[in-house]
Amino acid sequence: MAGLAIVHGRARAGVRAPEVTVEVYMSGGLPRMSMVGLPQAAVRESKDRVRAAIRCAQFEFPPRVTTVNLAPADLPKGGGRFDLPIALGILAASDQLPRTALAGHEFIGELGLTGELRAVDGVLPAALACGEAGRVLVVPAANGAEAALVRGVDVRVARTLSEVCAHVAGQRPLPKAVADTTAVVPAPAGIPDLADVRGQLRARRALEIAAAGGHHLLLSGSPGCGKTLLASRLPGILPEASEAEALETAAIASVSGRGIDPARWRQRPFRAPHHTASAIALAGGGGEPRPGEISLAHHGVLFLDELPEWSRHVLEVLREPLESGTVTVSRAARQAEFPARFQLVAAMNPCPCGWAGDASGRCQCGVDAVQRYRMRVSGPLLDRIDLHVDVPRMAPAELRPDAPPGEASTVVRARVEAARNLQIDRAGVLNAHLDQAGTAAHCRLPANDQALLERAIDSLQLSARAMHRILRVARTIADLAGREAIGSAHLAEALGYRGFDPRVQGAA
After folding, report:
1. Which residue range is the domain that position 201 belongs to?
2. Is residue 187 part of a domain?
3. What is the mean pLDDT for each group of 10 consecutive residues in the chain (508 residues)?
C-alpha cells in the first residue's frame, strides 16, 4: 500500500521481549507527526530525535502527515529502543528505502541527533525472541557482544543510521556480531578459595551439603568467627552454570539496566545487598518493573548478612520466592514476573552484642534482649532455611600462618558436581527443588528411620515443611556419599542441622 511501511521491533516486559510492529502511514496535509499505541514519554520524544537523525544521515524528512502506530496498542512502550524502527519506517513509507527488505529484520536502538546508534537495555531477551521468530536482528554496536551470546541468531551491528540504511538498501551489508570468546574468564577465576577457611569443619561440611543440593543455609555465630568468609566461598564450590542457566541470568541482568560483562557471563552471580535495602530493592519493582536482588541472584547466591538487622517486612518478601523460584511484581498499570531461583545464605549474631553463648562469658545482654533480637527473624522464614549451623569462635592456635590450609575449592567442587549429576539423572532437578511427590519417591526411609524422624519432629516441634526439607537434605548427604538409599547416619546428620534454632537458644 502506498504510503505505508511496517517495521518489526521488540518491547521490554520483565524478562520477556514481546514483538512490536511499528506501522508508519503517510498522507497529504499540513506536516505533522502523531504517535499512537500507548507510547511513554521517552517514546513520544523520539519524533525530535528521529527528525534530526534522518536529516544528519542525508535523507529527507517528508513534509507530510505522518502517523506512527506501535502495535499491540495495549502494551506499554518505553525507552529509546523504538527510535531506529520508527526512523526506518518513515524512510520506507516515503520511498527512500525499499519496504520489502524490512520484512525479515528486527531493529532495536536509540538514535542520537547526529544519527549515532546508542545502546539500550534488554537486548539479550530480544535476541532470544528474535531467534525464535527466525529474523535478522540489527542492534547498536555497543550491544553486539551481548546479543552474540545467543547462538543460532543472525545479529548485525551498526554504529549509525546511515549504515543501517545502506544495509537495508543492499549497498553495504552490516557486519555480524561476534562474541569475544578470547576474553571469557573461567568460572572459578577471581572467586575466593575455600582453602582460606581454617578449621570450622562443621560449617564447611554444611556449606558443601548446601552446594550439592541447592539448599538454603543460616550461619550463626559471634563477630569475626568466619560467617562472611564461608558465605563468600560458596560460589567457588558450585559447578559452572550451564549455557541455558547463564542465558537466563544474563537476560535478567540485561533488563536491569546494569548491563552484562560478556567475559564473566558464565559465572554464577553472588549478590550481597546491605541490610538497609528496601523491599523493592530486594524483590524488584518500580513504575516500569525491574528485577530486584533476588532475581539478580538467579542461579547463584544471595547473601544476607546481619539478618536480624534487616527490616522484618523486607525479609518477608523472601518467603514466596524461596518456595516458588519466581517473584511477581504487580503495579496498577502492569505486571511482570521475574525468575528467582537463588540459593540463600544468611548470617546473624546470636544477640545484640554478638557474644551470647561464647566461652569467654563476655555477653552482658539480658535474656529478654536476646529473645527480642532473635525474634526479629520470623519463624516462617527460618522454616524455609534447610541448614541451621552454629559457627563457633576459632582458637588462636588454629589461625596461625603456618597452620595447614583447608580443603581447596576445586576438590570440594568435584564432589559437589558428582552429587548434582546423580540428582539430575534421578529426578531432573536438585534435591532442594523436589516437589512433594518427588520427595516421597526419592527420599524414602526404612521403618525404623521413619520412626526416628517422626520422634525428632515431635521433639523439636517442627512443621511438615521442615520435615520434607530434612528428608531432602538427608538425600543430598547420601548422594555425597554415593549411596542409593538414605541411611540412618545420613538422616541423623540432616536432623543435626535442624537441632540448632537461633530463636530459642539460651543467652550466655
Report:
1. 194-496
2. no
3. 86 93 93 93 93 96 95 92 97 94 95 96 95 96 93 96 96 90 57 87 95 97 91 94 92 88 85 95 88 96 96 94 92 83 95 85 88 91 94 81 84 96 96 95 95 92 93 97 95 88 50
How far apart, in whole angstroms, are the C-alpha atoms of residue 200 and residue 221? Answer: 11
DSSP tag of 493: H
Transcribe 307-375 into DSSP letters: GGGS-HHHHGGGHHHHHHSEEEEE-SS-EEEEE---EEEEEE-SSSSS-TT-TT------HHHHHHHHT
DSSP 20: E
Q: Are 200 and 391 in contact (CB under 8 A)?
A: yes
* Same domain? 133 vs 58: yes
| Residue 504 lies inside a defined structural domain of this protein | no
Q: Is 174 in the same domain as 206?
A: no
389 strand-pairing partners: 219
Q: CA-CA-CA-CA torsion for 408, 409, 414, 419, nearest 10 degrees? A: 120
One-letter amino acid for residue 391 of the chain: V
Q: What angle do the packed helices 464-480 and 488-496 form, to 10 degrees?
A: 120
Residue 380, all three cell numbers: 516462617
Contact 102, 6 (CB under 8 A): yes
Burial class (CB in 10 A: 0-12, 13-18, 19+), 193: middle
Which of 133, 156, 179 marks a domain boundary? 179
- Contact criterion met (CB below 8 Å) for 329 and 283: yes
CATH number of the domain bearing residue 110: 3.30.230.10
Is residue 330 packed enough to be buried (19+ CB in 10 Å), middle (13-18) or exposed (0-12)? exposed
What single-letter amino acid sits at 71? A
Contacts of residue 382, Cβ cutoff 8 Å, sequence gap at least 6:
218, 388, 501, 502, 503
CATH number at residue 474: 3.40.50.300
Of 409, 389, 406, give the one whose Cα is nearest residue 235: 409
Report d(CA 59, CA 109) in Å as an integer: 18
Comparing C-alpha atoms, which of 383, 418, 406 is closest to residue 212? 418
Nearest to 434, CA basis, from 449, 422, 423, 446: 423
The torsion of the CA quartet 291, 131, 144, 290, rounded to 10 degrees, works out to -10
Rounded to two decimals, what is the model's pTM?
0.90
Q: Is residue 258 part of a domain?
A: yes
Is residue 457 in a domain?
A: yes
Tally of domains within the chain? 2
